[in-house]
Amino acid sequence: MGIEDYGGGQGPQSDVLVVTTNDVPGFQVQEVIGEVFGLTVRSRHLGSQIGAGLKSMVGGELKGLTKTLVETRNQAMQRLVEQARSRGANAVLMFRFDVTEAADVGTEVCAYGTAVVIARV
Fold first, then answer.
1. What is the pLDDT of residue 118?
2. What top-level class would CATH report for the domain 3-120?
3. Is 24 exposed, middle or buried (0-12, 13-18, 19+ CB in 10 A)?
4. CA–CA separation, 101 vs 32, rounded Å?
5. CB 110 within 8 A of CB 37
6. 3-state secondary structure at position 80
7. In terms of Cα–Cα distance, which of 18, 30, 41, 31 is closest to 112?
8. Rounded distance, CA 72 to CA 1, Å?
């Protein structure tokens, strides 16, 4: 079953549907494969840390850090999809992110969910 069967997707060449819900309307879970995750840890760039420190004094969005976090989350999600695909899943249910500080040197982002095989009802 390709992503075209879902009527949408998470980007080009995506054949794994990722949703935050427990199910997908119009589809039935045929097999639960299990937990999958994608993990990445990113250190902060010294320049962005200095800029963020200055910006925090006057307020406003920390654009450099926002960009880094978006890239980090996308990488974690990509790794989750790759793991789900390699285990034979065509969907990930109950998708979530967990973000923590990693030993004061960076940010750890973990994307996780339940890999399943779904079929249209």
1. 98
2. alpha beta
3. middle
4. 31
5. yes
6. helix
7. 18
8. 29
How confident is the model at residue 24, as a pLDDT? 97
Counting residues of the chain whose pLDDT is more than 90, the rounded percentage is 54
Q: Which residue has the higher pLDDT, 117 or 70?
A: 117
Cβ neighbours of residue 1 closer than 8 Å, sequence gap 6 or more: 90, 118, 119, 120
H helices within 1-121, ranges in order? 46-58, 63-86
Q: Region 41-61: what's the mean pLDDT?
A: 62
Map residue 28 onto helix, strand or coil: strand
**Rounded CA gap, 18 and 79, in Å?**
12
Pairing of strands 106-120, 91-102: antiparallel
Mean per-residue pLDDT, 62-78 = 86
Supply the mean pLDDT for the chain.
82
Kindly list the domain boundaries of the chain, sorted by start residue: 3-120
